[in-house]
Write a structure and sequence with these properties.
Blueprint lengths: L4 E3 L7 H11 L7 E9 L5 E8 L7 E7 L5 E3 L9 H11 L2 E3 L46 E5 L11 E6 L6 E5 L7 H5 L4 H9 L6 H16 L5 H29 L3 H22 L8 E2 L2 E2 L7 H22 L3 H7 L7 H7 L3 H5 L7 H4 L21 H26 L18 E9 L2 E10 L2 E8 L1 H6 L14 H8 L9
Parallel strand pairs: 1-4, 5-6
Antiparallel strand pairs: 2-3, 3-4, 7-8, 8-9, 10-11, 12-13, 13-14
């Protein structure tokens, strides 16, 4: 891994030291931000645990590791002291059979199985047998007199991802929900293994369709750090161009869902039209509406097909129309009434959890890789003030997205001005060596927040790849925001989070 690194390996007596150090670093007056806990299986049955932290003001992650021997795949849970590890530990149990003893609720999350011998073991060089999730492995819970459970999903009306929300309610209020995402589990981590570099990028682009560019960037950043590659300036501009267009498109998608929930048919149609215009522009730039094929290890595949002047003209029209419709929507009393005080996320909880993207920024927790650990063209662009709020409700999350849309248009204007200075013959990529060996971390800021990749190569092929989306890190917070809200608030809260279930159920 790149950056500061602390490793605790076999023998097992080092496991308590790893746990103690991790808890020390994530507590105190200036705690490091917990970014994830991941596993990697070895041929001998052992499992390596890797915790990723971001100390304040640090440009690189801090990696802490320990090794669980095959005969003892357990450790004392972190979740009771570090609640942000709650879902990560459930995922470890599903994928590796690791048991965090004392975990408050070790129900299956990604892959409900009744036979632990069938766990997929990412990192171990073998293909698991076809797995059939067993829903009976997930307990149903109904609490209190008069409380009943509404199973909302996994198939719902409209074009929505497969996810099941078990809403436990006495009739209107929502005291508790359970979230079941396993319907979307695709075995993504195993899909990376043994692939050459050029194929692995294609998998990264398809981890989370709403953040294809961000995932490709995070993966390629890890590769470039490992190989010591300096990406050419023109390529860094093109990368940032597509990243900001992706951000605008996905924030508009959130507005489509919010206005649809409010019954604002004209606003829904208008924001859907603007999102389509952005996607069509992306398609004209590179041949893919999702920006796929643009980012390659070491740079980009090509310059945008239209020239900077043509891109500028289209962006100016988009900015004018989107801004006008945004102002109209955000001045509609019936719309604002549905957002204000709905689904509040407490700022203290947001900071303790390290909430990412607009969800975190709307509650005063504002990690953003473009500011904290800038990459590609961002160190040279005028980002301006960080969009953030402290309201914590659906309205605050919506206002943060509008601030980010405006910021993206400003950045895109700077990028097209810089692209005018590029020449046809300028270098666009530096080839990565074909015999890569070692490990590295990479990150990028998706519309939903920070995307993090841990990648290990052996003889030029991927031995282990851990993609962590902001959607996985943030969705667990949906449990915490139904304070006094009722069933009809549910679509507003879900849409205001703006997350991707595909990015959760990896």
């Amino acid at each position: 891994m790149t950056g500061p690194r602390e490793a605790f390996t076999v023998p097992r007596r080092d496991l308590p030291g790893w746990r103690t150090r991790l808890l020390e670093l994530t507590s105190g007056t200036d705690p490091a931000r917990f970014a994830g806990l991941f596993g990697s299986a070895a041929a001998d049955g052992s499992v390596r645990l890797t915790a990723v932290l971001f100390p304040s003001q640090a440009e690189k992650p801090l990696i802490l590791e320990t090794l669980l021997p095959a005969a003892h795949l357990c450790y004392e849970t972190l979740s009771l002291r570090l609640p942000a590890a709650f879902w990560y530990e459930r995922a470890l149990h599903d994928l590796f059979g690791v048991e965090p003893t004392g975990h408050p609720r070790l129900d299956p999350l990604l892959l409900p199985l009744t036979d632990p011998a069938h766990t997929p073991l990412p990192g171990k060089a073998r293909r698991p047998e076809p797995l059939t999730p067993e829903e009976s492995a997930i307990p149903r819970t109904v609490l209190g007199p008069g409380v009943f459970t509404i199973a909302h999903g996994p198939v719902r009306s409209g074009v929505l991802e497969s996810v099941e929300y078990l809403v436990e309610t006495p009739g209107e209020d929502i005291p508790r929900i359970q979230i079941r995402v396993f319907h979307k589990h695709r075995g993504v981590s195993k899909s990376f293994e043994q692939r050459p570099l050029e194929d692995a990028v294609l998998v990264a682009e398809r981890v989370e369709g709403t953040a294809s560019v961000a995932h490709a960037l995070a993966f390629c950043h890890a590769v470039e750090r490992l190989a010591g590659i300096e990406v050419p300036w023109a390529a860094r501009l093109v990368r940032s161009l597509h990243a900001e267009l992706e951000r605008i498109a996905q924030h508009l998608d959130v507005m489509v869902k919010l206005t649809e929930a409010a019954g604002l048919a004209v606003a829904t149609a208008r924001f859907g039209l603007h999102k389509e215009r952005v996607l069509r522009l992306v398609g004209r730039l590179c041949g893919s509406r999702f920006g796929r094929g643009v980012v390659v290890p070491g740079g980009v595949h090509a310059l945008p097909a239209p020239g900077p002047h043509e891109i500028d003209r289209e962006l100016a029209r988009l900015r004018r129309d989107i801004t006008s419709d945004g102002r109209a929507a955000m001045a509609t009393p019936s719309f604002l009434d549905r957002l204000r005080t709905t689904g509040p996320l407490d700022p203290l909880l947001a900071r303790a959890h390290g909430a990412l993207g607009p969800v975190g920024k709307a509650s005063g927790s504002a990690p953003d890789g473009r500011y904290e650990r800038p990459y590609d063209a961002y160190p040279s662009l005028g980002l301006g003030p960080l969009p953030e709020d402290t309201g914590g409700d659906a309205l605050a999350r919506t206002q943060v997205r509008w601030a980010e849309i405006e910021q993206s248009f400003r950045l895109l204007r700077q990028i097209t001005e810089e692209l005018r200075e590029t020449a046809e013959g300028d270098a666009l990529a530096v080839a990565a060596p074909g015999d890569l060996n070692g490990e590295a971390a990479g990150w990028a800021e998706a519309p939903q927040g920070e995307v993090l990749y841990l990648v290990r190569f052996e003889n030029g092929r991927v031995a282990r790849c851990v993609p962590r989306s902001a959607s996985f890190h943030n969705l667990v917070l949906l449990h915490e925001v139904f304070a006094g809200d009722i069933l009809t608030d549910f679509p507003f809260i879900e849409a205001s989070f703006g997350l991707s279930i595909a990015g959760v159920a990896l």
